[in-house]
Fold:
Amino acid sequence: MDDVIKVSKDGLSGDESIIDSKMPGLSSMLMQLPNSREKWFSERLGLEAMSCDFGDPNVFLTISNDPRSTYDTRALLYKLEDSGKEMPLDHPYDQNTERYTELMSHFPTQMTIYLCLKTKMFLNVPG
Structure:
């Protein structure tokens, strides 16, 4: 402990290499202390190294749960409205907001359950 105090008084000029040269095991010892600056710095370096191994980290994902914009929710509405018939692949996109809102209002329970399950499955949320 006296060595740490002596090095801190004599060699603490912002240059960590002086401290490392006088006490070479200090950094590795501090990396083992939970919540120390050195511990978090080494963890960050490890994460950066892993991210370099996996490739470019510039990947973005946008999640939209707008029911009208996805084919599967439109297909479910079509199936509920037309007594279980499958929606054809070339079925036109419904631009009429009033009609779409009316359809969603006819089947609120089914659509709510489906959208909740879809979101949980996609985000892998337990429960």
About this structure: Residues 2-54 form one domain. The mean pLDDT is 76. The longest helix spans residues 37-54.
